[in-house]
Each structure stands twice: as C-alpha cells, then as structure tokens.
Write a structure and sequence with these properties.
2 domains, two-stranded parallel ribbon, 36% strand, single chain, alpha+beta, 121 residues, two-stranded antiparallel sheet
Length: 121
C-alpha cells in the first residue's frame, strides 16, 4: 500500500482495509496526518468478521413517519367476522395501502393497513 491509496481514501472519506499487503512508512505517516484509519489483516476470517460488524451498524433501516391526514371514526359496523370503521377525513388525504393508527384519548388501540376504501356522501 502506498501514498496514492491514502490520497484516494482521503478524497472519498474512507478507511483502508489491507489484506496481506505491506504498508509503506510514508503511507502510514500520511494516513495518520490525514486521519485515515488503516486496518491490516493477515487472516481472511478476521477481516470478514470485522467488516460484517462495521456494516451491521451502517445498514440498520431508518424509518421516518409521515402523517398524510387525520380521520375520525363515526360509526363501527360489524360485517360478518370483520369490523368496519366508518370514518370521516378531517384533514389531509387517506390512500389505500396507507398504514393507519387508531387512537382513543391518546392511547393507541390498533395499528395496521387499510384493506379497502369506499366513499359515501
């Protein structure tokens, strides 16, 4: 590994992972000055384990909740074994396949998806 590898790591804001490679003294000094981490490995299994541990923290999903609208339940109707909630949209919009949260007095009663929508006036 040479100074060009360190310069590339600095430009891409990356760390250097080396396997069975000798690092030049100039490259090691440049990496320390530039703040580039160098990880040397001689055993492939150790390298794989460390990379897996690094990626585990990076790949955790991040979800962001977006509120599209609010609806008020006006009537609950039994339809066979299912319960149907007759709602009126107060603000925003409601789409099929949206995830909804049913709350009463600030407490969550149910969370799930909308099976179907019908519009009555």
């Amino acid at each position: 590994m040479n100074i060009n590898d360190v310069n590339l790591a600095v430009a891409s804001k990356a760390m250097i992972i080396a396997f069975n490679v000798k690092t030049e003294a100039d490259a090691r000094r440049a990496a320390e000055l530039q703040g580039v981490a160098i990880r040397d490995y001689n055993v492939i299994y150790t390298l794989v384990e460390d990379v897996e541990q690094m990626l585990t923290g990076m790949l955790e999903p991040r979800y962001q909740e977006v509120v599209h609208g609010h609806a008020e339940v006006r009537q609950v109707i039994k339809a066979g074994r299912k319960m149907v909630a007759g709602c009126m949209v107060i603000d925003g919009v409601v789409h099929r396949r949206d995830r909804v949260r049913l709350q009463r007095a600030g407490q969550q009663l149910w969370e799930g998806g909308i099976a179907s929508l019908r519009r009555f006036k």
